[in-house]
């Protein structure tokens, strides 16, 4: 069974970009064809093609993405399997919008997290699962400058170690309760303005749902606990040129932040290396990669969504994201 699915989302040009970016740099550099619907071609310094399990163009709705990529993971999760949905891409590429961690949204613009919450709680509260006496907990973590923070901790020290010991797990019974907790977490986020997105913090966030339910195996009733991880990675401008760290420092507020960005790229590249000799996985490169180790290895069902901008102005960041996704696509 293929445990890892990879998708690409190409966001539309925003109204702000139409005003801010010179028209000559608004040219669309990404194309698809009906003959190869899961492949994209980008025309930069050279013509390159990339293949995914799913490709979603600028016209794709939030519901379409959820229905085609996430719905199938809900059943896996409720059967007791751990699941991870991870988004990455450069700042302002649509990661948080796709995931649904932006503060304001309409019914149509709701992202993966709020849609998943509604589906999960509807299932858990259904007659089928009520007899199993289930309950669900939620946690919300931010990783910034290689430090992890519990965004739902009220008072006291909110810093966490790589094992996330002491992380608050709050029991929830409704989608409204979860939405309220995520809003609380948003208020506790760090601000980390970058060149591409000066008004919206772009740090890595991990949201965890953990249900417990009774399940019967060979006539015996046991309690099954599984985890659903939603990972919204910070912008990946940093890995524009793998290994050229001295050229990247201008993008970051500290050496630790730079180290974290490069470590993520190294871990993804190593995971996707088909070489039989590639047995070393550099998870220890940063706190974030040590945490992600548990979300991308072993028998976890995972979905990775790369988010990109289609215009020439962002072509360097877009090519970098696609190269990054190419390595991710090789992960088994």
From TrEMBL:
<keyword id="KW-0493">Microtubule</keyword>
<dbReference type="Pfam" id="PF00225">
    <property type="entry name" value="Kinesin"/>
</dbReference>
<dbReference type="GO" id="GO:0005875">
    <property type="term" value="C:microtubule associated complex"/>
</dbReference>
<dbReference type="GO" id="GO:0005737">
    <property type="term" value="C:cytoplasm"/>
</dbReference>
<dbReference type="GO" id="GO:0051231">
    <property type="term" value="P:spindle elongation"/>
</dbReference>
<protein>
    <recommendedName>
        <fullName>Kinesin-like protein</fullName>
    </recommendedName>
</protein>
<keyword id="KW-0547">Nucleotide-binding</keyword>
<keyword id="KW-0378">Hydrolase</keyword>
<dbReference type="GO" id="GO:0005524">
    <property type="term" value="F:ATP binding"/>
</dbReference>
<dbReference type="GO" id="GO:0007018">
    <property type="term" value="P:microtubule-based movement"/>
</dbReference>
<keyword id="KW-0963">Cytoplasm</keyword>
<dbReference type="InterPro" id="IPR001752">
    <property type="entry name" value="Kinesin_motor_dom"/>
</dbReference>
<dbReference type="GO" id="GO:0016787">
    <property type="term" value="F:hydrolase activity"/>
</dbReference>
<keyword id="KW-0505">Motor protein</keyword>
<comment type="similarity">
    <text>Belongs to the TRAFAC class myosin-kinesin ATPase superfamily. Kinesin family.</text>
</comment>
<dbReference type="GO" id="GO:0005874">
    <property type="term" value="C:microtubule"/>
</dbReference>
<keyword id="KW-0175">Coiled coil</keyword>
<keyword id="KW-0067">ATP-binding</keyword>
<feature type="binding site">
    <location>
        <begin position="89"/>
        <end position="96"/>
    </location>
    <ligand>
        <name>ATP</name>
    </ligand>
</feature>
<feature type="domain" description="Kinesin motor">
    <location>
        <begin position="3"/>
        <end position="331"/>
    </location>
</feature>
<dbReference type="GO" id="GO:0008017">
    <property type="term" value="F:microtubule binding"/>
</dbReference>
<dbReference type="InterPro" id="IPR027640">
    <property type="entry name" value="Kinesin-like_fam"/>
</dbReference>
<dbReference type="GO" id="GO:0003777">
    <property type="term" value="F:microtubule motor activity"/>
</dbReference>
<dbReference type="InterPro" id="IPR036961">
    <property type="entry name" value="Kinesin_motor_dom_sf"/>
</dbReference>
<dbReference type="InterPro" id="IPR019821">
    <property type="entry name" value="Kinesin_motor_CS"/>
</dbReference>
<dbReference type="GO" id="GO:0007052">
    <property type="term" value="P:mitotic spindle organization"/>
</dbReference>
<dbReference type="InterPro" id="IPR027417">
    <property type="entry name" value="P-loop_NTPase"/>
</dbReference>
């Amino acid at each position: 069974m293929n445990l890892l699915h990879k998708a690409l989302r190409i966001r539309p040009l925003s109204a702000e970009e139409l005003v801010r970016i010179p028209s000559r740099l608004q040219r669309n550099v990404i194309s698809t064809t009906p003959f190869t619907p899961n492949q994209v071609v980008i025309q930069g310094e050279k013509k390159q093609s990339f293949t995914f399990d799913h490709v979603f163009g600028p016209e794709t709705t939030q519901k379409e993405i959820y229905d085609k990529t996430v719905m199938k993971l809900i059943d896996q999760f409720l059967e007791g399997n751990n699941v991870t949905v991870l988004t990455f891409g450069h700042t302002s590429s649509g990661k948080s919008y796709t995931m649904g961690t932006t503060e304001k949204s309409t019914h149509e613009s709701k992202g993966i997290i709020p849609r998943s919450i509604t589906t999960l709680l509807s299932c858990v509260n259904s007659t089928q699962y009520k007899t199993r006496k289930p309950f669900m907990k939620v946690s919300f973590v931010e990783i910034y400058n290689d430090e992890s923070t519990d965004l739902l901790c009220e008072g006291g020290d909110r810093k966490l170690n790589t094992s996330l010991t002491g992380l608050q797990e709050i029991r929830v019974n409704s989608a409204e309760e979860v939405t309220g907790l995520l809003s609380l977490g948003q208020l506790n986020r760090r601000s980390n303005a970058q060149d591409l997105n000066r008004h919206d913090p772009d740090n890595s966030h991990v949201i965890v749902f953990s249900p417990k339910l009774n399940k019967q195996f060979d006539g015996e009733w046991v309690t099954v606990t599984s985890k659903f991880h939603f990972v919204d990675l910070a912008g990946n401008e940093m890995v524009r040129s793998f290994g050229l760290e001295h050229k990247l420092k201008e993008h970051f507020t500290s050496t630790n932040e730079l180290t974290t960005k490069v470590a993520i790229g190294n871990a993804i590249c190593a995971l996707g290396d088909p070489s039989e000799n590639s047995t070393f996985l550099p998870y220890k490169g940063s706190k974030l990669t040590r945490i992600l180790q548990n979300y991308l290895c072993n028998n976890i069902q995972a979905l990775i969504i790369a988010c990109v901008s289609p215009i020439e102005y962002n072509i360097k960041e877009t090519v970098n994201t696609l190269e990054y996704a190419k390595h991710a696509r090789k992960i088994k």
